[in-house]
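Troubleshooting: if your tokenizer reports a length mismatch, compare your output against this known-good record of 319 residues.
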Amino acid sequence: MTQEQPTISRPPTSSELILDRSFRALARGLASLIVVVMVLLVCLIAIQASPAIRGYGLSFVSGTTWNAGKEQFGILPEIWGTLYSSLLGVALGSLFGVAVAIFLTEDFIPPWLQDLFKHIVNLLAAIPSVVYGLWGIFVVIPTIRPPCNWLHDHLGWIPIFGTPLLSVGMLPAAAVLAIMVLPTVSAISRDALASVNPRLREAAYGLGATRWEAIRTVIVPTASRGIYGSIILGFGRALGETMALAMLVGSTSTISWSLFSPGNTLAALLANRFPEAASPMELGVLMYAALVLLALTLIVNVLGELILMRGTAAAAPAR
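Known-good structure output:
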């Protein structure tokens, strides 16, 4: 009986070299195309916003009045509303998203039920934004209005409860936004938790840790980088969310700490004002607002990456 000869490595053929070089060139070209598209997008928005930038300068960012008739434009309340609603929504969505990810990866339920819940959570991302807005109007607001008004009546001296919830406001918008970012946070956190080396779990159990102690002290810290990435992606989704917030936040240019007061966001401002833009100057200031939203998203992602790099460096063992 003849023995199989071991496979001997060989140099690549000319056709394989051509294929490899072609694939590398295609990958570089597509990566460069993404950068070119982003640069063109920013340049086109900046060109259309240039009259407003020259006319208003930084006072547009610090102004608080939006009056198209008098050509007075300011977006500071919209910047505040964008950051405030996004932070509230991501905080709630991250809390529930990480909890769902832990529940679906740590064998709390049978595998077939895990798959069912995974599909249900993933389907939340397929629901249109306007449907979330309608759900918020007809379900969320009537449900939370009585307890919110009770909080205002009894704890109204606290700034975050200082305004009664009449119809729309920051809290309903943030609650709906939390549901919208939950699939992103849950899916990526679930992958991060599932990729933790099983030997770490076994070592924790071998040292006498309970399941919750192993999750809290070993598994979640090990997967923290992926969990952090899911929160950053969820925050990016929240910053650009338009229709649901346009329907729920109130479209009022006010700056308030109250969870129940109406407000506005940059994306909702663009969605509501663009159809009514009657002059070239108003169109220019709207493009200026779009440029500010783009810059805000970029700054948030850069700061998140810097925080991630510092956390990774701090967690690295000293040599």
